[in-house]
Every structure is written in structure tokens, then in C-alpha cells.
Design brief:
Blueprint (H helix, E strand, L loop, with lengths): L30 H5 L8 E2 L2 E2 L2 H9 L3 H14 L3 E9 L9 E8 L3 H18 L2 H4 L2 E7 L1
Parallel strand pairs: 4-5
Antiparallel strand pairs: 1-2, 3-4
């Protein structure tokens, strides 16, 4: 059996297309936007990045204002701070002893560290409520 030949299509320029088209939308992405990476909005406490666990614990126990006080005292008490960060420190046995650690690395002699640390502790005890103090800890290391 031979195939049937169809006549060649010749569109009439005066005749509009019978294909119905709704709006055709094109999207373009700028080169700058194409290179940009999506970044999750960071959460901050006292100007420091608060990882998820820190943020959740601080919100649950209403620690943010006390952490801000503690970080301010760290900045006022210690000289030559090289790094400053927050971490969550869960107690493996007693959840009521979970807390947030303020990590700092500083330069200086042991005698300078001791004076600065004592100044910090004195002000921390005066400015942070007694029932909150056990949830905020300071860890001082050498830079």
C-alpha cells in the first residue's frame, strides 16, 4: 500500500492564525541574581551569630537579654579579644543544667587574664539574676 500525499500547506497572509494563545510570559534572570546564593536569615544575639540550638534555647528560657548583658560585660572586661562566639552546651544527664557558652580567645599574660576574668565575674554576678547565671558560661582561651 502506498502512502497518501498531503497537499503542501501555504498559509494565507491575510488570514489570522486559528491557534488560540493566551499571554506568553518569559522570565529572565540577571547574571548577578544567577550567581547569588540563597542565604538563610541569620539569627543574632548581642550582635553574634546564634546557631539554631543557641537561638532555640535562648528563646525557650528567655535568655536573650541576659546574654546581651553577658556579652557586653565580656567586651568591657577583656582587652584584645580575638574571637567571640556562642554555642549551646547540653548536659548529657541533667537537662536543667543545659546552657549557652560564650567562647572568647584573647591575647595577654595569665596575670592579665586573671584580672580581666575577675572583673567580668564581679559584674556578671551583679547584673545577671541568680536563677539565670547557671545557664550562661564563659570559656576563655588563648588566641
Amino acid at each position: 500500500m502506498s502512502s497518501k500525499k498531503y497537499p503542501e500547506y501555504k498559509p494565507d497572509p491575510a488570514m489570522p492564525s486559528k491557534v488560540a494563545e493566551t499571554a506568553v510570559v518569559t522570565y529572565t534572570v540577571s547574571p548577578a541574581a544567577a550567581k547569588r546564593k540563597l542565604v538563610a536569615k541569620s539569627r543574632r544575639i548581642a550582635g553574634l551569630e546564634a546557631p539554631d540550638k543557641v537561638w532555640e534555647f535562648a528563646q525557650k528560657h528567655e535568655l536573650a537579654p541576659h546574654l546581651e548583658t553577658a556579652v557586653r560585660l565580656v567586651k568591657e572586661s577583656f582587652h584584645d579579644i580575638r574571637t567571640l562566639s556562642l554555642t549551646f552546651d547540653p548536659d548529657p544527664e541533667v537537662s536543667s543544667l543545659d546552657g549557652i557558652i560564650i567562647h572568647i580567645k584573647i591575647k595577654g599574660s595569665i596575670e592579665d587574664w586573671e584580672k580581666q576574668y575577675n572583673a567580668y565575674v564581679l559584674r556578671f554576678v551583679q547584673e545577671v539574676p541568680d536563677d539565670i547565671r547557671h545557664q550562661i558560661c564563659l570559656f576563655v582561651g588563648s588566641a
